[in-house]
């Protein structure tokens, strides 16, 4: 069984107000029905089915509301949505929330018992999820998911489902990211401009292996040769969020720099390890040499990615899952005259021990759930829809549009699209093909369409020659760091209080890198917080120490 783990976004603000508001509910996990498919057991008395209902489990028309950031006024007109509503005899409305105030609105609805029946949840905080489940905000999923075999398969394939059980019950169904079918490695990779390498006389492969020292030498050569003739605008090496990604790169030296490290059977704060200073000094050396953007320590999110897409950076480090990698190539082709996707390559960089330092991928983000007052029949119907959307036939509709109208499949499995790419773009004659994707996203995230066999929209160069070969190279000599579910999800007074310190590690890392006294700056950060760290580790070790 494939076992994967996940890192969570810990959102602890407003917890006191939220829990106070939830305190009035009496719907405990023990009281919540967990066998939704057995609709005849719902309520206080036995429900009698008509002959038509016996023949058609969806004979009763249902209407309900969904809380989400995904949706539009035209959603009910999209072919896949219309087909689902007709097949399963339901319609729904969207309680649409903007991303900017998603967290506040979600907490308010939880505190005031105002969630609609179906919830498509983003920014899932584990600590909030557990508290809300125990306070009765959510309805438990069926203990037996056999009625929904495709959803059940996910619960058996990914270990995250075992880890998010609350008192033995599932209250939120993680939305899986199927974006790395080759192994369990996180897809933070080094992308490079092959065209620029060629201009400097280097015949580099699409996936070029380098040691860390060779990688630095390449960046220095880029700065010297300036193959793009950009002058002061040239950035030899950029990171996804600029300086805010420096601490992420530092995990190549210290994987637990912003977490906890198991040492001699006990957990300790990871940041004080000497490998943190190794990372600081390496990145500071790059910064002082002008290999990084001069003011990138003040960057906003995605600033480094935007510079790379604009053609200013020679090498880029970021989260480059298959769909993002393919989109990156497309945008570079559009932005840079004469650029082709074969001009994009990847570096696999071995550290001083000769290994590739890789971490376990995040296999999910967000979840879908049901409010505690959701009707059994609504839960059953929505789960049936999700199960249906995971069938191969529906995944193809999600990817290509209406069968035999937008696309055809030959006897040999060849897919022929009857439209151009621009037709499916926003404002095109077939933009519903793109716009209906959020409907499946209510159940599972990206990746399922990308790996359909014969998908003409999938670049074989990007997926096979870049992404897959990169993952195969890593698998040949990995120094592998799995995520620790138990510690990540463990909640206690001092550990929760220390969470904000861990979250701010990247800011202190930036200050150390740009400081004239990096050792002193980092030591100050450690000294100011080591007492609180010791309290947090004491609670963790009371639960998990060997």
Offer a concise description of the structure:
The protein is an alpha/beta fold. It is 41% helix and 16% strand.
Task: Report what the structure shows.
The chain is an alpha/beta fold and 546 residues long. Helix content is 41%, strand content 16%. The strands form 6 sheets. It has a 5-stranded mixed β-sheet with strand order 2-1-3-15-6. A 5-stranded mixed β-sheet has the order 8-13-7-12-9, with helices on both faces. A two-stranded antiparallel sheet has the order 4-5. β1, α3 and β2 form a beta-alpha-beta unit. The longest helix has 27 residues. The chain is globular. The protein starts with 14 loop residues before the first helix and ends with a helix. The N terminus is likely disordered.
Task: Pick out its properties.
23 helices; disordered N terminus; alpha/beta; 5-stranded mixed β-sheet; 41% helix; single chain; 546 residues
* Count of helical stretches: 23
Assembly state of the chains shown: single chain
Describe the main β-sheet briefly: 5 strands, mixed
- In order across it, which strands form the biggest sheet? 2-1-3-15-6
Rg, Å, rounded: 25 Å
Strand fraction? 15-25%
Distance between the termini: 26 Å
Uncertain spans, ≥5 residues at pLDDT below 50? Answer: 1-51
Number of strands: 18
**Helix share bin:** 40-55%
Mean pLDDT: 88
* Shape, principal axes of CA atoms: globular
Structural class, by secondary structure, is alpha/beta
Layout of secondary structure:
Elements: H1 15-22, H2 51-55, E1 62-68, H3 79-88, E2 90-96, H4 102-111, E3 118-121, H5 126-135, H6 149-157, H7 160-163, E4 165-166, E5 169-170, E6 172-176, E7 188-193, H8 194-199, E8 207-211, H9 212-225, E9 235-239, H10 246-249, E10 260-263, E11 266-269, H11 274-288, H12 303-309, E12 313-319, H13 322-335, E13 344-350, E14 356-359, E15 364-370, H14 376-389, H15 392-400, E16 407-409, E17 415-417, H16 421-424, H17 432-435, H18 437-441, H19 460-476, E18 478-481, H20 485-489, H21 493-503, H22 505-514, H23 518-544
Parallel strand pairs: 1-2, 1-3, 8-13, 9-12, 14-18
Antiparallel strand pairs: 3-15, 4-5, 6-15, 7-12, 7-13, 10-11, 16-17
